[in-house]
Design goal:
9 strands; 8-stranded parallel beta barrel; 9 helices; TIM Barrel; single chain; alpha/beta; 16% strand
């Protein structure tokens, strides 16, 4: 069953409790907790033992299961702590980018070596490591995503398929998703007006405001029997609480309508 969630990075100015309260009121099924160093650490891997009781209490209070954590790091020491934190908090997926540089074969090779080690580490904790194509990175489009899948054989490595990055790579996400569906274990989602290189201002990343065929994307998910998290990930300048809540609520309404319609079809 597809579960809709929000990455708490949208509420980076505020506490995790404040984020969870708004996300719950918007109707989401769960939450992706941000553990992004230097941007938003609602989850601090090195200090998770001090946070564990409070985070689990908030999750239970607002009926928001942890769908995933975005760690966005390739540092092995940090990732080991993150995998341990995820295992202890019941977080099934840890999300990162590949790092590296687009169009550089040596950079791609190095990225695969690092990801292979991290996937093995994730397996030891029973956590799935998901990697997404990212503008400018070694894995940046469907071709390089498929290349990664082919090279690294691990059931604890999955694809985090973010349509905004695929769109900015000049591809149609709704067409490309089926090509990698067998490996997709998490989806970051947002809209994008234009071709980038950035996804635009946070308000314009709300689902339904940009140029991406998100309805077609949800249809591809349903037709491909995807069952997993779909987490809204909005990046950019800090948002006031009201503005962040509007983005989350508007996106939920759009995604929920797309999902219901595609299921009916």
């Amino acid at each position: 069953m597809i579960k809709l969630g929000v990455n708490s990075v949208l509420f980076k100015r505020f506490s995790f409790r404040e984020a969870a309260q708004i996300i719950s009121r918007c109707g989401y099924d769960g939450v992706e907790i941000s553990a992004i160093e230097g941007m938003c650490e609602h989850l601090m891997p090195a200090k998770y033992k001090l946070q564990k009781t409070e985070l689990l209490s908030i999750s239970q209070e607002y009926n928001l299961p942890f769908l995933s954590a975005e760690v966005a790091s390739r540092d092995r020491e940090r990732m080991l702590l993150a995998f341990e934190a995820c295992a202890q908090l019941g977080i099934p997926v840890a999300n990162i980018g590949s790092g590296g540089k687009s169009g550089d074969e040596d950079s791609f090779k190095e990225a695969m070596e690092i990801i292979s080690v991290l996937a093995s580490d994730a397996e030891s904790f029973g956590v799935t490591l998901c990697v997404k194509a990212h503008v400018g990175a070694a894995v940046h489009d469907t071709e390089t995503t498929l290349k990664m899948i082919k090279q690294i054989k691990s059931k604890f490595l999955g694809v985090d398929m973010d349509p905004s990055h695929i769109h900015r790579a000049g591809e149609n996400p709704a067409v490309e998703l089926p090509k990698v569906m067998s490996a997709v274990k998490h989806i970051h989602i947002r809209d994008c007006l234009g071709n980038g290189p950035s996804p635009g201002e946070p308000a314009m990343q709300a689902c339904g405001r940009g140029d991406i065929d998100l309805y077609g994307y949800f249809k591809a998910m349903v037709n491909g029997d995807y069952e997993g998290p779909v987490c809204l990930e909005i990046i950019g300048p800090d948002q006031a609480l009201t503005d962040a809540a509007v983005i989350a609520a508007e996106s939920f309404g759009y995604m929920n309508a797309c999902l219901k319609q595609t299921i009916k079809e």
